[in-house]
Amino acid sequence: MSLSSIFHPPNWGIFLWGVNHMPSPYMSRALTLAKRGLGSTSPNPMVGAVIRDAEGRIVAEGFHKKAGGPHAEADALKKAAKAAQGATLYVTLEPCNHHGRTPPCTEAILAAGIGRVVVASLDPNPHVAGGGIQRLRDAGIPVEVGDGRDEAEALNRPFLTWSRLGRPLITLKAAMTLDGKVADRNGRSKYLTSEAALAHAHELRRQHDAILVGSGTVLADDPELTYRGRRRGRDPVRVILDSRGRTPPEARVFQSPSTAPTLVFTTEEASVDWEREIFSAGGEIVRVDAGPDGRVSLERVLVHLAALQVLSVLVEGGPEVHGAFLDQGLADRWVGYLAPLIMGGAEAPSPVAGRGLTLPEAHHLEINSVQKRGPDVIVDAWFRRALERETR
Q: Could you list the active site residues?
């Protein structure tokens, strides 16, 4: 991610926050391999692996390509075959020691005769963290931990957030003018930014498990909420927040040919007749408790999505939705698209509503990248509190 017009992953931003040591060349290669799984491994993390022999030559490498497929270690070990005997394995995440969709990687490492293992980061799941490493050490294999840890954890921030907090990672996305307006005084917002910026936004959709808007955005823009980029990708789960049952069943989000589900979160205030209409249109109604403001409880929405193994959510809602996430401290990342336009006007909305903050209370972010796409500028930043969680 740079000032160039060429997008390059990982979109989560490998940025060395307070890193004291650069990764070894072998772990750097493993991290590069892991990035190839961006947008296709969820709900699994991105993982890369490198095997080198006693002379320092790389004899095999692998990465986790998609959920349900071979893990990075298994991919590399299969390619290495007999060359794995006595070799060193570099892997960006602690090898698993439990049966899931695939057998434990620890057993494959032992069977291959690997002589030493270097791990970048521990499994963030508190119930299994350290178990894979302990299994290898118990079998007599030396294991080193920490080479490239910060980079590996930054690569898998969605997985870490889901594992540690029990909710998806939240990215707020907004397109605006240089003077911070998301629509003109008449409410028109299509399209502020260029085709080049739109292509970047679709790549962002590809890399998230779900996309979320409020019913106001559905009524104003009637979006499909699908991925329409050039790279192979899947549509994200479509999520609509609708506290009172305003979303029309004829909305395009229900009509678009997509296999991704459309979840409409509402409260008991919405009518049963409306629920039946949405169900007939292809949507799924999820009733949750209302928050203190009388609207859908964001906390309950995120708990529900986490249970569905949604690790990341791209929030493309309007000012009220963005404001709600910020007011409740639920935002991790901000991606702002700045169009070279000035509209002015006190009535033209800005990207964030909510209760607002004083200057000393303002949210602090760390800018990860600034890049130009066509005539537009894209600012990608992380909320400082989200970064501070990683160092605890």
A: 73
